[in-house]
Fold these 3 entries.
Entry 1:
Amino acid sequence: MCVFCKIAKGEIPSNKVLESDDFICFHDLNPRAPIHLLIIPKIHVENFQEMPSQLMGEMTSFIQEVASKMGLDQSGYRLITNNGEDGGQEVMHLHFHLLGGTKLSWTHFTPDDTHKAL
Ligand code: 5GP
Ligand code: ZN
């Protein structure tokens, strides 16, 4: 069983923000912004490419609820999912990073840093 399945089942502790029957939101272990949350479906879905669109629709509402609960709906936030090898996905269970709490930068996507002005 993967690490996020274990978190979803409560077998590994997490700092939970919101939970529903189908989704769970918890703080990232290594935050990269003042607010850095992870949002996952409770069922094991490997990545965004494998996500059923109906469940994704329901996940959209859940993510919006998280953003409101954290007070980020007005100030703004960034939602990221790293997909597969080139996307830099490390945990092979679909998760969205929700980052906020400051004005975020938008740089350093490639090792040679040729996209400074993205
Ligand atoms: P990825 O690179 O796959 O998009 O991101 C994986 C994220 O999961 C990383 O930001 C990492 O800090 C986080 N992470 C990995 N293992 C755990 C864990 O056991 N608990 C929590 N809360 N976050 C984790
Ligand atoms: Zn899993």
Entry 2:
Amino acid sequence: MTNIGSYHERVRDFNWNIAEKELGYNPGDTINIGWYCSDRICRMGLSDRIALYHEGFSGEERKYTFNDLRLATNTIGSFLRDLGIVPEDRVCLFMDRIPELYFSFIAGLKIGAIVQPLFSAFGDESLFVRLENAGTRAIITQRKHLAKVRKIADRLPGLEHIIIVDHRGDKELLKGEKAFSLTEATPVEEIEIFPARADSPSVLHYTSGTTGQPKGVRHVHYSLISQYLTTKWVLDLRDDDIYWCTADPGWVTGTSYGIIGPWSMGVTQCVLDSGFSADAWYRFIEKYRITMWYSAPTAIRSLMKAGDEVVKKYDLTSLRHLASVGEPLNAEAVIWSEKVYGLPFLDTYWQTETGSIMISNFPGMKIKPGSMGKPFPGIEGVVLDPKTFTPITEPGKVGLIAFKPGWPAMMTTYWNNPEKYSEKFVNGWYLAGDRAYLDNEEYYWFIGRDDDVINTGGHLVSPFEVESALLEHEAVSESAVVAKPDEVNMEVVKAFITLKPGYTPNDDLELEIMNFIRKKLSSLAMPQEIEYMDSLPKTRSGKIMRRLLHAREWGEEIGDTSTLDDE
Ligand code: WTA
């Protein structure tokens, strides 16, 4: 029996108050996610249950009960409060997947701060634009990432506190820098929980668009309602599960389903803070007897590449349910996983903006490999005609994925950018920015994004950000960045550039430019290929035609080129 039971019955009788009741929340009550994920679980008598099994990159193991989680988050919360952090201050988390990252997330929410998690792999420029945009007041980081923070701190007058969770006293602390050690701090038994309302802001995740700087997607505490129920019905978590979400909390999957969903249900989760290898991952599943595994297509394709033999070296019989998110999950991957693990990966579709799973293959429902499945109960999904923005009823006809606004986890705005936020709505629909079609049983089939954003291994990269960073290199005159097909990551970043006079194309320069981007932005945003050109294709008004370069990479019809310069 699955948690959701009959999908059709759930759709018919759906009301979000199912989740509200289970969580003991009445409309108008306070609803603090931090409290729900720690204190409430202890009150339910589960203080001694393991909340987190953690394995570090050098193999060190730690485990924490829900009571440990409650105390650690109280301790960090009161440290932040003593520094003067007040509700709605932005507190950035800039750490590897160490326990302090997970605890600081809950701690920030407990005191009403807006938590801003960022990938620790970000270079200084990626970090800077996001901290500047958010007006971040405090950043919690580690020694190993401090140099990047120091490099930009002077340009961020609002950044008052830089908290280092593993300071060893051997390095001098500069202005604004504070040392905090969870192991040395006195555990705080009780703190006053910020009385968050349904619409109190909670998390600020940055996501990339085609133009302009990354956008801060602002979520509220009420998002818990969707995150809890989707975790229960899609990820099918139960009391005795050992859950592993492979996503980094710098990405929305790592917070909605790597922190909030499982902990609000009082479920034990595992974190592996090390790089990918098939052996390391299978060993981790075997060791912790993981039962539910939520991952991403790029990882699954990498596992496929590693082959069937390595699977046999490990005992993976604990697994009972698998799901995937972030990019198209090809039918072959679903069929392969069924063959080698005895379980198909169930595809789920959603976005930073939606805050929770929107479309998915539900446990117990007929799975069509390659399809994203159907909308979550209570979610009204459609495919819209791109010209009239009215729903398409004809099966197989491609249109724009859209949802009727109003589910609990939906973003409430883009930070400081209400214009961009309102552009997401047409005719009363929220436009996801993706294209898909419905088949004759109303399953969704993903076609592609409706913009130029590059989805590389599940991470969205803005061509604009990479182009801007390229222009800062002394040799680069012009640049255009597009996606290029890739077997494992589906898409990778490719840059076309023209050089300034005095520079000649060569391999060393290519490597140097790649590294320049990696350091400034991140390894994901780094072009995997750079092609030198004499001039870039442009429209008559001088706009670089990315579309044309993109089509060339994908071997597609080039389409309308009537506005091209060189015709
Ligand atoms: C893409 C991730 C195909 C899509 C939680 C979406 C997918 C964007 C799927 C959001 C899927 C996500 N199949 N494409 N199952 N899931 N996407 O904001 O383009 O990082 O709009 O959130 O990823 O990415 P984001």
Entry 3:
Amino acid sequence: MTTPRVLVLNGPNLNLLGTRQPEIYGKETLDDIINQLRTQALMAGWELVALQSNHEGELIDAVHAARLDGTLAIIINPAAYSHTSVALLDALNTFDGKVIEVHLSNIHKREAFRHHSYISSRADGVIAGLGSQGYQAALDAIIATAKNA
Ligand code: DQA
């Protein structure tokens, strides 16, 4: 049996986690979050591939690659592209697996322009406001759903 794979995509400015507005986004770095997720994935027998990019096209290319390489699920924090990117939504609409959208902060408690996410219309689940625990909950859900499929 091939090892099931999950792709974790993080959008613009999330490379600055830890020092970027820690009162909103927390003190953990993106490496901290990804390392924890990788351990969680490994313990369940999954492979985790992670990409952070400040460039919309690079995130889209990663989704296109995931369509073809057997990736079962995508966890995505599109960051500001949530609120602007029809192109990223269109790319995700070509992906057949599970998609879970994660936001560290509760976007609904913040400025009005953050309340709408283009990505949510494709996402199977949306988690906002749980900080890094949101990514862990998303991965748990993906692993549990695949087990029960
Ligand atoms: C974010 C929320 C977005 O509105 C913002 O642009 C981000 C991060 C979050 O994780 O809370 O960069 O996606």
